[in-house]
Please model this.
Amino acid sequence: MVSSLLVDAIANPTEALQELYKDLKDNDPDAFFDRVFPHFSSIFSSPGALSEIPILDGQNPPHTHTDRSLVQFSAMIQDTSLSPEVYLAKLPNGQLGGWGLVDDAPGHNVDYSDLRECLVLWGVTIPGQLQEARDIDNEEHTPVQAHKYPIPGAKHVGVKIKVYDTQADSFRTTDLVTFVGILSSEPCLLYLVPALHVLFSQPYAPPPPPLTTKADPTLRDDMISWIANNGLAGDRVAAEWVLLSSLAKPLCLARFPPPPPEQSDCPPSLSRVLSLLFPFVTTIPLSLPTLNTTPFCPESKNEELHSGWLQLPKGSLCIVTESGVKEGTVTENGLLNLHRTQEMMSSQNLEYVFPFSKFTFETDVDFIITCEGSKSAFFQNNIILPLSSPAKPEDLYTPLADIPRPEKLDSFRQFAMKMKSSSVSISDEAAKYIQEDFVQERKDSGTGVTADDFIQRMTIARLLALSYGDTDITKHTWEKAKILDRERKQRPA
Model:
């Protein structure tokens, strides 16, 4: 049975908020703030209740909702540096203030003891989500504050988010949060922006795919074959490396041809393939204009934070293509962008630039680079894998035709999600075997095998164990890692 409180909150959230305020006999605004979050979150706590709330996203942008309607907005927090706003928590007529409520008869004497501050954030639709590709085909929607979205020129929804409760300070940039609140619009400079007055919020996580009925021992091989056939011109070895690199280590796919001239702006098919498997996949098409003129890191200008290509949510997979870079000059700004990208690949840190200071924030983004030569022209990578030849451009930039049936695709997604969230250990016996084996290999090869090789192979072994669903690195895993690394090195550059 559907709760009447739920029905009332969806039908008229403003009235539901005011009724809650009336129930508080002493009308103490500070006490009221602490009641709003638990009250409304409890109304929508039962299974399926949240899905009753209309969604604010690219397919349902702000103008499709009525003023002061209840909506849910799953967003990446782009900016937490906006100045707090002052509002009247209790209006002169004794009614509730805040949440976009104002005195209908201005001119009353204001009791300054009723002034409070609310936190102001800027949130955007989550970069790299698959729905982005089909979102926002409504020509009436023009994103406001477009410079606050990481992907230049991409259609999206940006919203001013106003938080009134005492937990407001817990939000951080690139956090993924589902905000539930009352949608209105407010003036910002010379135009109106959507404003969401938050009633409650919760951390956002991609919805898990439906559970399959039974484990499929061929699933890993099937997934690698599908990636190879649809994104890498049938190259299974490269597909296995792509699967492993999506877990942790940056990978450079060398000898990756550019798109055909008639498809010069087309991303590689691999981007689409991986976007069906992982929740957040972004492609950065490098070119001289992109490097020299577009921002890669967030930068504060005129007291607001402009976004950049690399301001991505944790857990993202970023594909960087180098085929669009032609002969010309990389400016100082372009060099800075390359340096920041390399730094993020190497240390998982991203610099935020402010007028008189710089701050570094931790990230969690995996990278795959595609380049035409034997190695990247711009980035240092320990793992470089040339594609098998011949790889024709038309085989790597084709529309995705072979999409698995829904239950198979759900199985692939489950597999990928489990890999990303699992961990592995190593037994004393396996550790001893690996150490002795490596020492012997160094003796046999002279100086051909280094400590860096050992570190890299251990990383590969860990990723292999994860990809097989194992909880331990075994002797077999180690031997498989050696073979995989040897095959990679034997490929013609």
